[in-house]
Amino acid sequence: MWVLTPAAFAGKLLSVFRQPLSSLWRSLVPLFCWLRATFWLLATKRRKQQLVLRGPDGTKEEEEDPPLPTTPTSVNYHFTRQCNYKCGFCFHTAKTSFVLPLEEAKRGLLLLKEAGMEKINFSGGEPFLQDRGEYLGKLVRFCKVELRLPSVSIVSNGSLIRERWFQNYGEYLDILAISCDSFDEEVNVLIGRGQGKKNHVENLQKLRRWCRDYRVAFKINSVINRFNVEEDMTEQIKALNPVRWKVFQCLLIEGENCGEDALREAERFVIGDEEFERFLERHKEVSCLVPESNQKMKDSYLILDEYMRFLNCRKGRKDPSKSILDVGVEEAIKFSGFDEKMFLKRGGKYIWSKADLKLDW
């Protein structure tokens, strides 16, 4: 049958061509229309098949729409890697001395604002080291006055902050977070926070007073490690009364504080999950405590380095994207490794503007 069908079709086609020219044209027009309709239907069917996927159980699933671009709601900008402390577990070490020119940094911050940024956190290194805090102050003022960001914050070890800085820039700053890992000065020295005759704990108390005087929300960050995991900080934290006490589990990052190319060897500082949980249990009465285990911390931060590249930590190291100054925010953020669900789960979105915080100044 399959042999005769082509022969019959060929015979019919031959008889068509034996007709006069006018009859030939009338015969070919319906044929062309049929062929066109047939190929259009085949193409439509093929496109529909491409939209059908198979699930794990073999059932058909409709293809999902492409994911929406990530919004950089809260960004941590480590504009310098230089620091005057030598914390043994530091995860952002002094591998370069580069700092962007001020106007280029402002251009990048404007790009982030246009992409949806609501909160900027300046960190380091030690952010007050550059130009004695003037570089930082100008960025803080720019973000609050010109970009009108709801929240501008800083993380610092506090050793270089002077009251004059608060006088010049305090009104533009929402939150100042001071790193304090122990209320025992000997432990601070062991960790690497010692600086000659200066007392880290006494300086912390002075900064707390300045934050109250100049209406800046005060926050404390602590990294829980082998040297402070047994400490009870309840009374000291309650006395300082920060708006938040961020408690981090010591985290290893290849190329920063562990591995061949690292400037630190943080393995001796690491604690286990159970030890971290015991520390949290000991401080359960501290209402402002916000815990962050290694699992919560690793992928839930949008981190920009000194070149304004997003740093992807998903593989246990910091893999940089291209700079937002070169390719824009939407393109660069695709390579950030950011886990927005974990960001929300760890409490990354909170009342972060001092205008909305009910504080007793």
From TrEMBL:
It comes from the Eukaryota. It catalyses: CTP + AH2 + S-adenosyl-L-methionine = 3'-deoxy-3',4'-didehydro-CTP + 5'-deoxyadenosine + L-methionine + A + H2O + H(+). SUPFAM superfamilies: Radical SAM enzymes. Belongs to the radical SAM superfamily. RSAD2 family. GO terms for molecular function: 4 iron, 4 sulfur cluster binding; lyase activity; metal ion binding. This is S-adenosylmethionine-dependent nucleotide dehydratase RSAD2. Its cofactor is [4Fe-4S] cluster. Homodimer. Interacts with IRAK1 and TRAF6. Interacts with FPPS. Interacts with HADHB. Interacts (via C-terminus) with VAPA/VAP33 (via C-terminus).
